[in-house]
Design a protein that fits this description.
Length: 111
């Protein structure tokens, strides 16, 4: 029983990419997507995304790769197929790839 409690934080982290409704993925330096959660796979398939540049845009991807560090201050991208804005946070993976965390920004309220 004690072992089960000791592993719960790890289980929660492994659960996260499959249940977050916004895209979470890992990409190589070239932009090839090499890891993603099940919800991200559905999103990418619906919108024809096969490379990081397809969802982030070439300019944002260049900024991510040039910095080679965690972006504590999120970048903002507009994903044209959904007409929605996303905050994008990144962090380097131990193997040199980049972890990408996208969060949909709320739509402006019009009165």
């Amino acid at each position: 029983m004690a072992r089960r409690f000791a592993t719960r934080p790890i289980e929660r982290r492994s659960w996260f990419p499959d249940h977050k409704p916004d895209p979470v993925f890992r990409a190589t330096y070239e932009g090839d997507i090499c890891d993603w959660g099940s919800q991200t796979a559905i999103f990418f398939e619906e919108h024809g995304v096969s490379r990081a540049q397809d969802v982030l845009g070439d300019d944002t991807w260049t900024k991510v790769m040039a910095a080679d560090r965690t972006h504590d201050e999120p970048l903002t991208v507009r994903f044209a197929p959904t007409r929605l804005n996303y905050s994008v946070a990144t962090s380097p993976a131990p193997n040199g790839d980049s972890n990408i965390y996208m969060t949909r920004q709320p739509e402006p309220v019009t009165v």
